[in-house]
UniProtKB/TrEMBL annotation:
InterPro entries: Methyltransf_11, Methyltransf_Superfamily, SAM-dependent_MTases_sf. This is SAM-dependent methyltransferase. GO terms for molecular function: S-adenosylmethionine-dependent methyltransferase activity. SUPFAM superfamilies: S-adenosyl-L-methionine-dependent methyltransferases (SSF53335).
C-alpha cells in the first residue's frame, strides 16, 4: 500500500541538491526572524545549559543552534547534531569548521536515536515534529535518552494559526488550507505540552511567538506557492488568485499588510 500521508522537503525521499539549496536559504532566513530569535532566547534561558553537559540537537539543519549549544557547554561538554539531510549536514559541518566549533554532526533518525538510555543532559528539538508521521515516538525517544533531571526544549510551528490580511475571506481560507497540507502534523505547536506529558516528562515552562512577515512587502515565493496549490486543487480560480495578489500588493504599498504564523515552545525535564 502506498503511504499517502503528507511529506515535506525535509523527508529523505524528497532530498535533492535543489531542495537542499532552498532549505538552506529558508533556514538562514528563519535564523534572523525576530520572532524565532525571541523564542529561541526564551528556550535557551529556560534550559540553562551548563559547561560540561552532553547535549543532543535533533534535526540540526544548518547547525546554528548546535553551535550555540556547543559554546554553552564549553570544551568539557559534548554536543551532537543529528540531521538526515546530507546536504544540510554538509553545510552544518562546513560552518562549524569555519567557526572552529566543537559541535559534531551525524546522520540519524529522530524515531530511533543512536544513543543509550539516560545519557543526555539536554535535548534541543526545533521544528521537527511537524514533519514526522509518528511525532509521539520521537518524544518517547527523547525521554528515553534523557538522564534523570535532564531537560528538553521542543519548539514547533502551528500552521493553523496562519493569518493573512487583507483579502477575500474565502480565498484566504483556501490558501491557509494549503499551509495546513504542507506539514505532516500542521497542529504540532499546540500539542507539545501533551506529548511531553504523555512521555512522562514534567513541564517547566511554555512560550510562544508570532512570526511576523514584513508589513511593507509580500513574501511572494510563499504566497505564490500557496496560491498555486489552492488552484491546483480547485479551491479557487485564477481570478480569485489574481485579485488576492492585487489586494496584498496594495496593502504592502500602504504599509498595512499582515502575514503571520505562531510558533510555540515547551521546556520540560525527566523526573529524578
Amino acid at each position: 500500500m502506498v503511504d499517502t500521508r503528507p511529506t515535506s522537503a525535509f523527508h529523505a525521499q524528497n532530498i535533492s541538491a535543489d531542495s537542499t539549496a532552498r532549505l538552506v536559504g529558508a533556514l538562514d532566513a528563519q535564523d534572523v526572524n525576530d520572532g524565532v530569535q525571541r523564542l529561541r532566547s526564551w528556550a535557551h534561558a529556560a534550559l540553562v545549559v551548563r559547561p560540561g553537559e552532553r547535549v543532543l540537537d535533533i534535526g540540526s539543519g544548518t547547525g546554528s543552534q548546535t553551535r550555540r549549544l556547543a559554546t554553552a557547554v564549553g570544551p568539557r561538554g559534548r554536543v551532537l547534531g543529528i540531521e538526515p539531510n546530507p546536504g544540510l549536514r554538509a553545510v552544518a559541518e562546513q560552518r562549524g569548521t569555519e567557526e572552529r566549533s566543537a559541535a559534531r554532526f551525524a546522520d540519524a533518525d529522530a524515531l530511533s536515536l543512536p544513543l543509550p538510555d539516560a545519557t543526555v543532559d539536554v535535548v534541543w528539538c526545533e521544528r521537527v515534529l511537524q514533519h514526522l508521521v509518528e511525532p509521539e515516538k520521537a518524544v518517547f525517544e527523547i525521554a528515553r535518552v534523557l538522564r534523570p533531571g535532564g531537560r528538553v526544549a521542543l519548539l514547533d510551528t502551528d500552521w493553523a494559526t496562519t493569518i493573512l490580511h487583507p483579502g477575500d475571506p474565502e480565498t484566504i481560507a483556501a490558501l491557509t488550507t494549503g499551509a495546513l497540507s504542507a506539514a505532516a502534523d500542521p497542529y504540532s505547536g499546540r500539542k507539545l505540552v501533551g506529548r511531553l506529558t504523555a512521555a512522562g516528562l514534567v513541564i517547566d515552562d511554555r512560550g510562544s511567538q508570532a512570526l511576523l512577515q514584513d508589513h511593507k512587502s509580500v513574501a511572494w515565493p510563499l504566497i505564490r506557492m500557496l496560491g498555486d496549490s489552492a488552484m491546483s486543487r480547485g479551491l479557487i480560480d485564477e481570478a480569485q488568485r489574481d485579485r488576492l495578489y492585487e489586494d496584498l500588493a496594495e496593502a504592502a504599498r500602504q504599509g498595512g499588510l499582515h502575514m503571520s504564523v505562531t510558533m510555540f515552545g515547551a521546556v520540560a525535564h525527566r523526573p529524578e
